[in-house]
Amino acid sequence: MQGQENIKRALEIAAAGGHNVIMIGPPGAGKTMLAKRLPSILPPLTLNEALETTKIHSVAGKVGADATLITTRPYRSPHHTISDVALVGGGGNPQPGEISLSHNGVLFLDELPEFKRTVLEVMRQPMEERRVTISRAKVSIDYPANFMLVASMNPCPCGYYNHPEKECVCGPGVVQRYLSKVSGPLLDRIDLHVEVVPVSFDQMTTLRKNETSDEIRARVVKAREMQSERFKDQKNIYCNAMMPANMVKEICVINDAGRTLLKTAMERLGLSARAYDRILKVSRTIADLAGTPEIKN
Ligand SMILES: Nc1ncnc2c1ncn2[C@@H]1O[C@H](COP(=O)(O)OP(=O)(O)OP(=O)(O)O)[C@@H](O)[C@H]1O
Ligand SMILES: [Mg+2]
Ligand SMILES: [Zn+2]
Question: Tens digits of per-residue pLDDT, 77-86?
């Protein structure tokens, strides 16, 4: 299925480089289903990551008395009714929120526009800094929040905007308002945007033999190993998504043709410098998945 191949590929790239991804598509396209399968292709935690993740879970009292090291990447999927505090952390005796519990793992926000606007807004800073500072009258606590955001949404409230067969019944202005809820705060911080088309019964039954999760995961793990090697001298940088701006130029080298193409795209789409860097980092991850030293276009 065309659309699902797009999401699968985007999730593979996201898993390999630690990138954020949003899936946009109509009801029944398989967004939730594929996001739930993401853990099957995630790379294992490195020892450092495991230590950090275990530490934050134990602060939150989520590790039992027989506390052993957490060795699988966290995968958290809070419901859209979640409060600001439960998501980013806080309270009288400041506790880590979902963004810290998903440290070094995945935070899946299904139906993104359903979340409270304030919730989407308070996530912005932590996403940028990969940590969160919770200030109370007397104390200010820092918790790590290096998570990979995976989000899903419909293109409009009825779900069928731009659908090839079904008619969108949303009134004028409704679609705009729906998108504006997420566009300001979050959309420009998400590396990969994928659009999905629906699966028809015919397509579902004639699907060609798919790759298994293990096959995809093997590629992801290899790509992550290249990144571990690349960042071995950098403290606290584990994957391409975490690469600071000053390293991008040196690490994400593109050829002249690629640079021209990107420049044209930037001008036509009016992309920011931040978006430019993000495209380069994703390109690096795609090259890592292909096992090539150079970024090709
Ligand atoms: N390739 C597929 N093979 C088998 N079942 C599929 C496939 N794609 C989707 N489905 C099934 O279709 C149904 C809808 O999928 P899912 O709930 O993931 O859609 P969605 O994109 O999240 O829709 P919504 O926007 O309504 O949340 C599920 O029951 C899922 O199991
Ligand atoms: Mg869904
Ligand atoms: Zn609609």
Answer: 999 999 999 9
Angstrom distance (rounded) from CA 182 to CA 120: 7
- Report pTM: 0.91
CA of residue 7 to ligand 1 center, whole Å: 12
Nearest residue (CA) to ligand 1, atom 24? 27
Which conformational region is residue 236 in: left (phi greater than 0), alpha (psi within -120 to 50 degrees), or beta? left
Asked if residue 37 has its Cβ within 6 Å of ligand 1, the reply is no
pLDDT at 52 over 70: yes
- What pLDDT is recorded for position 203? 59
DSSP assignment string, 148-216: EEEEEE-SSSSS-TT-SSSPP-PPTTHHHHHHHHHHTTTGGG-SEEEE--PPPHHHHHTPPPPPPHHHH
C-alpha of residue 268 to centroid of ligand 1, in Å:
35
The yes-or-no verdict on residue 64 having pLDDT over 70 is no
Ligand 1 neighbourhood includes 30 CB (under 6 angstroms): yes
Question: Distance, CA 169 to ligand 3 centroid (Å)?
Answer: 5
Task: Identify which ligand lies nearest to the alpha carbon of 156.
Answer: 3
Domains delineated in the chain? 2-205 (3.40.50.300), 243-290 (no CATH)
